[in-house]
Design goal:
Blueprint: E1 4-11, E2 21-28, E3 33-37, H1 44-52, E4 59-64, E5 67-68, E6 79-82, H2 94-104, H3 109-123, H4 138-150, E7 156-160, H5 168-185, E8 188-193, H6 196-202, E9 205-210, E10 213-218, H7 220-225, H8 230-235, E11 242-248, E12 252-255, E13 258-261, H9 267-270, E14 275-280, E15 285-286, E16 296-308, E17 312-318, E18 325-331, E19 341-347, E20 352-354
Parallel strand pairs: 3-8, 3-9, 6-7, 7-8
Antiparallel strand pairs: 1-2, 1-4, 4-5, 9-10, 11-12, 11-14, 12-13, 14-20, 15-19, 16-17, 16-19, 17-18
Helix pairs in contact: 2-3, 2-4, 3-4, 4-5
């Protein structure tokens, strides 16, 4: 296992006016499962490929266990990478796919047999060792690709969107398998994805990227509950956080025709702003009160859409201005229908405020 320390990493491709990665700094702890999360083109795969030694580094350093590896060839970095495509050899059976890399490194035959059978047993591949890839399901092929990395017994695992080719049900089961395997093996893992569900469920920590830069790093629920800016607020969560401009008063904000108390922010924290963005998660809007108290503010709105999802229902509600939509996640037994007036309860303790100019969160400064 190993600590991976990345300091001031940058990557600029020839002919590009903007860097693909800029001043990327991150330390991944020994045995940690770190997820790099962001939209397509944000630079997360470029970071992974530089760690793997598949892309030259423009600026900065990468160190594995205290050893700077900028000029170290990929084959000598003691890492194993699993790609989005399984990259299995179609003419080889599962056993030989798993053993191929070890043979190239002149590992003794007895040791190859031990490692391959041990990995196959962990991944449930023992019955398929004599099958070729065309006779395997997508999930089984992905497990073979994972097994090929496991038998290497590397210091670091690198995963580049390994589940994106799987269907929804298989993605869930394979995701759970990856979580279990990483927990049991305990190897330092860096996992790239654009899927926020994968990031929330798999990572010990997540590093959210946008336009080649680090936006926020933290434990999944910490980042979800305390987003650093509007990008993180809307990128994490499905449906995303509602962001609505409100006019500020003395100690409240005006949302439609309703005053929302802002007890956690002093006038000093809000500065001279007259308008801020109010953020509220869909699950913090209620059709029926979850508890008594004065933290719940009723807001009357028009129901624009009802989306039953089985275990819950999403309501798309329109403020009286006719242009602002808010999404609420309510119970599956709601009786509300399109066109009706509905009064939902907003939890003022769960409100976030963002600066509309910088998009950064305005921190609370009162208990």
């Amino acid at each position: 296992m190993a600590v991976v320390a990345i300091d001031g990493l940058g990557k600029r491709y020839p002919g590009s006016s903007e860097p693909a990665v800029e001043d990327f700094t991150l330390t991944i702890g020994d045995g940690e499962f770190m997820v790099l999360l962001g939209p397509s083109g944000c630079g997360k795969s470029s970071v992974l490929r530089m760690i793997a030694g598949l892309e030259p580094i423009t600026t900065g350093t990468i160190a594995i266990d205290g050893r700077v590896v900028n000029q170290v060839p990929a084959k000598e970095r003691d890492i194993a990478m699993v790609f989005q495509s399984y990259a299995l050899y179609p003419h080889m059976d599962v056993f030989n796919n798993l053993a191929f890399g070890l043979r190239r490194r002149s590992v003794p035959a007895a040791e190859i047999d031990r490692r391959v059978r041990q990995a196959a047993d962990k991944l449930g591949l023992t019955p398929y060792l004599r099958r070729k890839p065309h006779a395997l399901s997508g999930g089984q092929r992905q497990r073979v690709a994972l097994g090929r990395a496991i038998v290497r017994e590397p210091k670091v695992f690198l995963f580049d969107e390994p589940l994106s080719n799987l269907d929804a049900a298989l993605r869930v089961s394979t995701r759970n398998e990856l979580i279990r395997q990483q927990h049991e093996i305990g190897i330092t893992t860096i996992y790239v994805t654009h899927d926020q569900v994968e990031a929330m469920t798999m990572g010990h920590r997540i590093c959210i990227m946008d336009k080649g830069e680090v936006v926020q790093i933290g434990a999944p629920l910490e980042v979800y509950r305390s987003p650093a800016n509007t990008f993180v607020a809307r990128f994490l969560g499905n449906p995303p956080m509602n962001l609505v401009p409100i006019e500020l008063g003395q100690s409240s904000g005006r949302l439609g025709n309703v005053d929302i108390p802002l007890r956690s922010w002093s006038p000093r924290a809000l500065g001279h702003a007259r308008t801020v963005l109010l953020g509220i998660r869909p699950e913090d809007l209620y059709e029926t009160p979850p508890r008594p108290g004065d933290d719940l503010v009723p807001i009357a709105m028009q129901v624009s859409a009802v989306e039953p999802l089985g275990a819950e229902t999403l309501l798309v509600l329109t403020l009286d201005d006719g242009t602002t939509d808010i999404i609420a996640r309510v119970g599956r037994d709601t009786r509300l229908r399109i066109g009706e007036r509905a009064t939902v309860l907003l939890d003022t303790t769960a409100v976030h405020l963002f600066d509309p100019t910088t998009t950064r969160v305005i921190p609370r400064d009162l208990p």
